[in-house]
Task: structure prediction
Amino acid sequence: MELSFTMQDGSRIRVKIDRTSMDIKGVIVLIHGLGEHLERYNEWAGRFVDSGFSVIRVDLPGHGRSGGKRGHIKSFGMVDEIISNLTTMADEEFPGVPVILYGHSLGGTFVLNYLLSGNGGINLAIVTSPWIKLSFEPPRGKMILASVVKNILPALVQPTGLVPEHLSHDHDVVKRYIEDPLVHYKISVALFSGVHIAARAIMERGSEIKLPLLLLHGEDDLITSPGSSSEFAMISPGATFKLWKGGYHELHNEPFRDEIFKEIVGWLNSQL
Result:
């Protein structure tokens, strides 16, 4: 089922709900990463549905088929509002069912920020390859530009420089990504600056996140830093952390994704 809702600023946000036909164990609210969209999780959502979980997915502003300038999200507060709307939707569509917030990459940063903000309605969280720190140093010029113009031209977009081959060892995944018309390689100054502010808060206040949290990261991730995930896990009392040997950025799209899914569902079943 597809639907949409309108934000306070008039932005139209696309949502998709996949319902399990089994006795429902929980509802997963899935937040995608930078430059991608909800349809890249069709196979992954189907696995959860077949395992007794319903899934609510969203195209973030400036992504997929949602409104907004490509690559631009005005603020983390805007995403907090979206996640809050989705958790309310989960409660209305699946009353009395545990809500699991799941974020990948930038989506993982949004999830951690939401938990840090004290927003309720969440029973468990799953975060994969979060953008707390990049695996490389951003170009100095990009950092200077962001600091200079963030209050003047917040919607100014820059190329991300993402290398698709760094996403997964699965060549078909990379090929589909490159050919996907809904994928983009853009990030606005406001979003870039917002990530750095949120990441700093996550590392400084991670001990405040006590919710049961499964954190997974690939050891060979060339996009976001596995070391930063390890550091966060050490200060977050509810975190269960696993580093996957040989894993690139998108663990759910790696050739060994069956093992990743088994790990996630096993953890969920142990918590529910």
In short: The helical segments are 42-50, 76-93, 106-116, 140-149, 171-179, 189-205, 226-235, 257-271. The chain is about 35% helix and 20% strand.
